[in-house]
Amino acid sequence: MKYSRAEIISNDKITEGIYSMKVTAETESVKPGQFYMLQPRGELLPRPISVCEIGGGWLEFCYAVVGAGTLEFSEMRVGDEINLTGPLGNGFDMDFINKHKRVAVVSGSIGIAPFIEVCKRLTCEYECFCGFHGESYLTYRFVGRNALGTPHTKIATDNGVEGHRGLVTELFDPKDFDLILACGSEGFSKAVAQMCVKANVPLLISMDRYMACGVGACLCCTCKTVNGNERCCADGPVFKGGELLW
Amino acid sequence: MVRVNLCGIELKNPVIMASGTFGFGREYSAFYDLSKLGGICTKGLTLEPREGNGGRRVHETPMGMLNSVGLQNPGVAAFIERELPFMLGLGTAVIVNVGGNEPEDYIESINLLNKTGADIIELNISCPNVKKGGMAYGIKSKVAHDFVREIRKHCKKPLMVKLSPNAEDITDMAAACADAGADALSLINTLKGMAVDIAARKPVFDNVFAGLSGPAVKPVALRMVYEVCKAVKIPVVGLGGISNAADVLEFIMAGAACVQIGTANFVNPMAGAEITGELPELMDSLGIKNLDEIRGVL
Ligand SMILES: Cc1cc2nc3c(=O)[nH]c(=O)nc-3n(C[C@H](O)[C@H](O)[C@H](O)COP(=O)(O)OP(=O)(O)OC[C@H]3O[C@@H](n4cnc5c(N)ncnc54)[C@H](O)[C@@H]3O)c2cc1C
Ligand SMILES: Cc1cc2nc3c(=O)[nH]c(=O)nc-3n(C[C@H](O)[C@H](O)[C@H](O)COP(=O)(O)O)c2cc1C
Ligand code: FES
Fold this sequence. Notes:
The complex is a heterodimer of chains A (246) and B (298).
Chain A: E1 2-15, E2 18-24, E3 35-38, E4 47-50, E5 53-54, E6 58-64, H1 68-75, E7 81-88, H2 94-97, E8 102-108, H3 115-121, E9 125-132, H4 138-143, E10 153-157, E11 164-165, E12 179-183, H5 186-199, E13 203-206, E14 222-225, E15 228-231, E16 238-240
Parallel strand pairs in A: 8-9, 8-12, 9-10, 10-11, 12-13
Antiparallel strand pairs in A: 1-2, 1-7, 2-6, 3-4, 3-7, 5-6, 13-16, 14-15
Chain B: E1 4-6, E2 9-11, E3 15-17, H1 26-29, E4 39-41, E5 58-61, E6 64-67, H2 76-88, E7 93-98, H3 103-114, E8 120-124, E9 128-129, E10 135-136, H4 141-154, E11 159-162, H5 170-179, E12 184-187, E13 191-194, E14 196-197, E15 202-203, E16 209-213, H6 218-231, E17 236-239, H7 245-253, E18 258-261, H8 264-267, H9 271-285, H10 291-294
Parallel strand pairs in B: 3-4, 3-18, 4-7, 7-8, 8-11, 11-12, 12-17, 17-18
Antiparallel strand pairs in B: 1-2, 5-6, 6-16, 9-10, 13-16, 14-15
Helix pairs in contact in B: 3-4, 4-5, 5-6, 7-9
Residues 18-21, 43-44, 67, 69, 71, 97, 124, 162, 189-190, 213-214, 217, 239-242, 261-264 of chain B line the site of flavin mononucleotide (FMN).
């Protein structure tokens, strides 16, 4: 992990409110599911954003505009520089994941972001279940250009504009899989975790917490677990579903 | 040019990392050589381990942040066993921040720390005192005076008392702590604030109130440091919103012996290295030969 300045190579709108930014970076040690703290110039604290795709010498972030910081990111241009710290967190252990037979990848909204790189590296059988709000399902079309875009991907939207009308949790039965990977909002995470615990199927889930330092020093981002409070930024963001307390 | 003697402890420079913003140094040691720093204040420690507060712990505000971590820490004994040896090997001064509820807890913590190689004890008096009906030691000067005098009897290390900006009268509070035997003062701790989640129609924090820090508090911190430096003879360590070497010089000119850096570490994990590096350059460019020349010039 390093604090550095990166150059923006591209910053494109995917669909209303969803953008994809590519920046120059050293990527040898970066793992899928890790994140960077990206610094908006106009705001005090940097913003945690997951690595969406890892290239040779570049990283891609996929982000939703939800407030001042992400709005500023969306307005940055090719050639602009951005300060960032990373890679941070544990990420997904691909060797461990690939030891399984059938894996379900489950995402809520922009929680799809870390799975682009994950799916590229999956060597086992897998299916993807992605939930979106309305038209933001188009995110899937874009980021789904890679491994995610298999015929095995099922989509749920709240207004039925694409795929199943309703919740992504209605699309799959954890019992059909021997490992679930998930990332989404807090409500989504809780619902998926409860399903997996009930079905007794192991879950690896990337958690969303408000952060300050992003490196493990401030204890602002803790998740309650069976091992006591753990730091989402340094001990996570990927946690074993069975260890989280809600 | 930037060396400072803080109550008998030689610091390489006046830049100390503030309690609760630097853990025990481990995380930031991955970014730079911490021996560059004047010192490090540990996360606030209590006699028993603490889980800290539930619910949201941080909320960003314009150029500031509110935190409600609630003194999550492993307890003094675990700190001495697992973290202190690492810190003592860093080549920088180790300042142990001590909090608690009951005076007995504080005293027991300090007795444990007396036997260690820690350089300075920083007494956090912003914690509620259960015996006094939950009132913080740091609000009323008389309460603080009695408390500091009691702690002083037991503390064999230099004792630095960290003042809360929420004190009824900051200069009176500073004078009371100095009179009770404090060797130094540090200020300010966070300002009591709050935020509302308008969608949920609820306070953002389970505890309703939280501590404000960052550049937003700097003018208030600077004013308090200036007033306190005029009111007491013991060294004063200034903090609150310091983000760069220019901010450091402002506090030293206001009279501070040295400074602490808190929230700025979150904005840039290299803050400590950059500020210590920039300070001599900035002094050079302003024709300042040493810190004594400008300390308290206002
Ligand atoms: C490990 C991790 C990975 C993430 N990856 C992505 C990603 O790949 N793509 C993406 O679009 N978003 C991601 N997020 C969420 C993203 O960090 C927030 O949407 C973003 O911080 C909002 O900033 P803002 O200034 O636009 O919003 P504002 O609401 O103006 O932000 C105010 C403050 O709250 C914080 N904040 C607001 N919402 C969140 C949130 N949901 N989670 C954490 N902090 C928040 C901000 O960081 C900032 O400090 C991730 C969060 C975490 C913890
Ligand atoms: C996340 C966080 C945790 C803190 N924890 C402690 C603590 O345990 N003990 C203490 O005395 N001060 C604590 N503080 C206060 C800081 O040490 C400092 O006094 C305050 O943040 C003002 O300085 P700053 O604006 O440079 O951050 C904490 C501050 C923050 C932001
Ligand atoms: S954000 Fe500071 S410990 Fe995780």
